[in-house]
Amino acid sequence: MDDKIEIRKVSKRYGSKTALDNVDLTIGKGMFGLLGRNGAGKTTLMKTLAALHPKSGGTIRVCGVPIEDRKKIRSMTGYLPQEFSMYPTMRVDECLDYLGILSGMSKALRKERAEMLLKKVNLYGHRQKKVKELSGGMKRRLGIAQALLHEPKVLIVDEPTAGLDPEERIRFRNLLGEVAEDRIVILSTHIVGDIEASCEMAAVMNEGKILWTGNVKDLLHEAEGKVWTVTVESRFLPQIKSLYSVTGMVMQGSQTAVRFVHDGAPDLTGAAQTDPGLEDAYIFCLFKNGCIDIGGED
Amino acid sequence: MLFLKELRRVVFSKIFILFFVAEVFMAFFTQFWSDMGSGFRNYAPPVPGGDYGMTVVDDPPTLTQEATASLINDYVNNEYTTYPYGFIHTVHLKGSDKDKISVILSKLTGIVEIEQYVRSSFEIKYTYDEYKQYIIPELGVLNNVSIDEFHALMTEADKILGGGSKYSPKEIMYNFSLGPKSYEEALAEYNSLIYDDRITNGYARLFCDYHGFFMALLPVFLVAVYLSADKRSKAEQLIFSRSISSVKLAAARFAALVTAEMIPVLFTAILATYRVAQFYDPAMMDMFAMFKYSFIWILPTAIAVTGTDMLLSGLLPAVAVVIIQFGAWFMMMFMGSLYEDFGVFDLVIRHNTEYDRQGFMDNITVFVQNRLFFTALGLICTALYVFIWKLRREGRFGESKLLSKLSLHRSET
């Protein structure tokens, strides 16, 4: 059985709205990042891969299994939805036990897996707590534990770090990195830092289309020579924003250090090239594909 | 295992505690238990020369005389009290409808100008609410009007009045054909309770009468709150993504809900048996009667209400399900009779007495058909719920405009 997900010309329409437009992707073992702004179609793609949404066209095979074989897909997929929660009065260990039953696991296996996973996600000491007593970060870790409970080949994680504090976010990313060693993990996010810190392969989505896919290093490589910095008087900022895609600004008294992407030499005295970060590369990708109006507005 | 998990989730929920308390107090303590201690029931055999209450008698002359006189009074006053859908309603007829009643009265009495005739021929007495009552002692129906024709004319009058009047086939006997119960009848009834029903079988019908009344409503709160928990807790997508079959999960939840609904019934069945034993010789009692009747009488109600409420919960938000069920229950309650006057399609079966075994047995075929019908209805509704739940799980429900309008569970984009 292939250890990859093949998505070919997949589309999804809601009436006249196209949520996925001819999506073509191949996702192999390890962490795969799906980057895009809110409303780009990431959640729709995640739900389609988790057999929670039917596609309107195209084909999807998960480890060789067609997506239409929902029962099999569900048994080999772990899903952490964007808004993960469980019954508030249920205890952490009860949650895993209940979801384990819904995954058709035996009592002994449920007990063994739940204990192991709760230790792995640092929730073992909190296993008697009710879901409503967990912090946001603890809930996400419980989310990962439940998604891994039935040892899925594929883990689909939708916007898992939104709303987490920096420490929890790092801890969560490291956890995902650990579990990605022997399975396919798809991480959907609009936070570039998550992709930069944890994914080797990624895709950029916008308005239901895949704009770019490949190794994250290649995305950076494509932005080389396109990222510039310049320090200008703050009063010129509106003009600069109207001409270039600004990715950063640092105020320094009456002056502002501006970072922007531009294909070619900018007509700006003192502008100097600089090494691109992934955020610059992402913005350049959107800019290059005509997804950003100059001025920083969509 | 899944059934036990679901049952545990139901019975440890706050809504179940409320359901349990409501069912036990409303259907049992304030009705059956307090009835038994109030002296309202007779625990001793009747003695000759006593008052044994009233009963419906087969006395066509009394029926036709009383009912016709009542209709004449209502016609001359042009004021009819009816109970369509259970609510009191005063009807004042105009034009052709008024004339139609006049024609009916002419057929019954042979008098053409009935209003003039009554006003000129009979004295008036006023009732406490200023209602003019004409004293019509001798006026009867024409000799050539048979009892069947009489019933047909009264049914027609009821239709003109919009239904729910005391002239309807359902009500006419209780309003105009009552007579005192004889000692022999009272004794036969008592003996039937003691020997045929072995006491508790008679009381079990009364017990089920009360429980059936509330079981037709209260489960909706349990079902609606329980089934909306997935969405309320934002756990729905998570549940959808597991590999369990839709049929298995829905069946486990249905079974858990029905089992939970029967807990207060079976609990009070124990108390009811104990309560009856305080007034009769336990050696003569059927100790399992309350439980037997609970299963054949109340369980089908629980199945029907749970199934239909599950189906509605698949289509509508919880609050709408409660409102619909409450409305349906309210109408059923006030349209029905207290006694064994029920049909195959009446969810609530009334038999508000520990006596009248014969009346119940006379209707046993309808009772069995009724209970089978509602059991089947509940199961069919549950099957439809599974179908809708499966569509929602696959993201297919809510895509069509019609279903989108019906459902609040819309797909995300």
TrEMBL record, chain A:
Family annotation (Pfam families): ABC_tran (PF00005)
Annotated TM spans: none
Domain ABC transporter per the UniProt entry, residue ranges: 5-232
Protein origin, superkingdom: Bacteria
Gene3D superfamilies xref list: P-loop containing nucleotide triphosphate hydrolases
InterPro entries: AAA+_ATPase, ABC_transporter-like_ATP-bd, ABC_transporter-like_CS, P-loop_NTPase
GO molecular function: ATP binding; ATP hydrolysis activity
Keywords from the named record: ATP-binding, Nucleotide-binding, Transport
Family that this chain belongs to: Belongs to the ABC transporter superfamily.
Protein name as it appears in the record: ABC transporter, ATP-binding protein
Organism, as annotated: Ruminococcus albus 8
Automatic annotation (TrEMBL), chain B:
Top-rank taxon, per record: Bacteria
UniProt keyword annotations, A-Z: Membrane, Transmembrane, Transmembrane helix
Keyword match Transmembrane: yes
The keyword Transmembrane helix belongs to this UniProt entry's keyword annotation: yes
Residue intervals passing through the bilayer: 12-33, 210-229, 250-274, 294-312, 319-339, 372-391
Protein name: Conserved domain protein
Lineage: Bacteria, Bacillati, Bacillota, Clostridia, Eubacteriales
